[in-house]
Amino acid sequence: MNTNKSPMDTTTPATPQEAEQLAIKAVNEYLTACRATPSDPNYSNYLMKLCSVAGVTIAQKDGYVTAAQRLEGTALFLLGQAPQGHAQ
To answer: What stretches of the chain show up as alpha helix (H) in DSSP?
Structure first.
């Protein structure tokens, strides 16, 4: 069995690494489509809209409690990444 996926393999689900790269690309394309730059006061609002839409999509598949738990897990991960004394 050949386990090497070509970059154009669309017959199997993406690996976690591929999914992360696709997500980064999608976010960058979305921000470009929103004509947003990091200095835009709405920049974070645009990104939170993506989180909101993703959460609702998860809820539709797995239920609202699971969606909320996943989003909470992401928030806790982010807090764990904050430099000491900068978790504000």
So the answer is: 16-33, 43-62, 64-81
